[in-house]
Write a structure and sequence with these properties.
Two copies of one chain form a homodimer. With 336 residues, chain A is α/β, with parallel strands linked by helices. Chain A has 13 helices and twelve strands. Chain A has three domains: 53 residues, Orthogonal Bundle (434 Repressor (Amino-terminal Domain)); 127 residues, Rossmann fold; 137 residues, Response regulator (Rossmann fold, 3-Layer(aba) Sandwich), CATH 3.40.50.2300. The structure holds a DNA duplex (16 and 16 nucleotides). Chains A, B: One of its GO terms (molecular function) is DNA-binding transcription factor activity.
Chain lengths: 336, 336
DNA sequence: TTGAAAGCGCTACCAT
DNA sequence: ATGGTAGCGCTTTCAA
């Protein structure tokens, strides 16, 4: 492994000069610079970023810690973050907490000394104590969660508003018995969406105890929920799933069960992942601009790192909008 | 930022002892260890992985360089890689070459000193000179590409076999005039798939000059290809798209144009991204176990790093299988 | 403009 | 079992 010292020796200069030349600093004569560059090329020198990071006390890398790497939601999110980070010439270090609290702490700690800051999407349990982490002083932006004590800067989608919109919409399109498939109780968004659902159903349909099935936001749980529901024999005319993955699955299951989606049975989701536009009928959902969510978080973090942003209380909330598609075309015989 | 030196001082021991205790080595008395741990906790000490990496000459991190972070293919791939890497207690550093050759080189170099090895999915142009990279000695596994000079270990899906299977299948289901939407010419898989398509069509249908439209594997190009095709007035009864993203789009466009997918018009893709199962009718495609592709690559890299694998010539090829769904149910009036 | 040398925070070797 | 110390590869004062 060739080091800068070898390059310096080969070029017959000191490491200091070599370093300057290779970093494109001005105070190096043209001829020395050329000698050094030639030597570097001859030896196939590639700088060791690890060492560089250590001396410069910065890594030009930002860490991202997500509960999972699975599915389009995260894919889109990472894409947004990458876009922002890459535009600034920085790199992305990806951590995965795999949902567990312990792994989250571990993941955060593993980032120390390897990144300049963190974008993190913590489960609720972690969010509450996040500012307690030894890394407290560490630049950190929280995604879609209630920051513990409200102290950490955050970016989030207004889940409550989004869920209210979509439930309201279902009602307008004729739904009277709406079932909700919720996300995991450890997830802040899941709770917000469920709460909003209950509120609207209670207020508009006078139903204080609607059916709520517990899902987990992942593949498999939409289908499972629907099959439980069908077995139970409950009557219902619409399903509002906590996210699109479950909604799309629910839609497929209901179609298989013989319902005409959009006319006999309305289905809606949340997130607006790309998939939602491609299923047929298209899935009505809450468009939350996932890549933008990531992009905003990254920008905020970069500002934080540069010191151009206070490290407290900056909460950005994205207000989502409805994406209306065929899955809520309208219940055929509107019953009052 | 609290360092190990401060912890040592606080505990009244040397840094050496502190290091041992904190790394769980055996040769430390119980009492000293406790003193040190207490001191570390009191000071909120978090080890600096960057420095650690430097001394240990290893990072326990593997780098992944992809042409793009967009879409389900990469999402699934990363998921597979993560699964393997995480199982070994290591971390993932994500690089994005954004398709350009220059950025790829840059991305590779930026990894030096920050990762123990690289999984890379290079465009063709880069693949050929990859082993020339100064990082040559660096553990590296190539994904889905022809490794330059065939020297680098690789994992890939047998695109040719997959494409042959699916084209054959289209013919069996009655297709006689098959159109191909290809991927970008810079992509090895794209070329393999197109070649296989041409071969089968020539052999089985005696058509030496089938219609091939150029796409780019990304959103938008499936639709564009179909609209060009429809405008041209060409007759055709089946579309084989180079990947699922384009196939799904093509399917939607054709449906909008009034074709009954599966009976009047057959459509097939390649990859089997999750989306393919959810569209309706389901998309017939080549199932290539994307996560497994990533997992195998990661395992191979880890073996390489550990030195339990030679660094040359190890090529793993995954043989894909057909996933038959509604989009190729069968042409209604089978013409000979 | 150039060089010498002091670290960055940590681990691991060699003594004790 | 513990401590002293020499690096890991690089950047960056400070002098010359």
């Amino acid at each position: 492994m060739v080091t800068i010292r070898q390059v310096a020796k080969e070029a017959g200069v000191s490491v200091a000069t070599a370093s300057r030349a290779l970093n494109g600093m001005e105070n190096v004569t043209r001829s020395t610079r050329e000698k050094i560059e030639a030597a570097a090329a001859r030896l196939n020198y590639v700088p060791h970023s690890g060492a560089r990071n250590l001396t410069r006390r910065r890594t030009d890398t930002i860490g991202v810690i997500l509960p999972d790497l699975f599915g389009e939601f995260f894919s889109e999110l990472i894409r947004g973050i990458d876009r922002a980070v890459h535009a600034e010439g920085k790199t992305l270090l990806l951590g995965n907490m795999h949902g567990s609290q312990q792994e989250t702490t571990q993941a955060i700690r593993a980032m120390r000394g390897r990144v300049d800051g963190l974008v993190i999407m913590p489960p609720n349990s972690v969010a509450e104590t996040l500012h307690t982490e030894p890394l407290g002083a560490f630049p950190m932006v929280v995604l879609n969660a209630v920051p513990g004590g409200g102290e950490l800067p955050s970016v989030s989608v207004d889940s409550r508003a989004g869920a209210e919109m979509v439930v309201q919409h279902l009602i307008e399109r004729g739904a009277r018995r709406i079932v909700h498939i919720s996300g995991p109780a450890t997830n802040h968004d899941a709770i917000e969406r469920e709460t909003a659902f209950r509120n609207v159903v209670c207020r508009e349909l006078d139903n204080a105890d609607p059916i709520v099935l517990t899902g987990d936001f992942c593949e498999g749980s939409g289908e499972a929920a629907i099959s439980r529901l069908l077995e139970s024999g409950e009557r219902f005319d619409a399903v509002f799933a906590g996210n699109d993955v479950m909604a799309v699955e629910a839609m497929a299951s209901l179609r298989d069960a013989g319902y005409a989606i959009g006319s006999e049975m309305l289905v809606a989701g949340f997130d607006d992942i790309p998939l939602s536009r491609y299923v047929s009928p298209g899935l009505t959902t809450v468009h939350s601009e996932i890549p933008r969510l990531g992009e905003l978080a990254a920008h905020k973090l970069l500002a934080l790192i540069e010191g151009s942003l206070a490290s407290e209380g900056q909460a950005t909330v994205i207000r989502p909008r409805l994406a209306i598609r065929g899955s809520t075309a309208g219940l055929a015989p509107p019953r009052s």
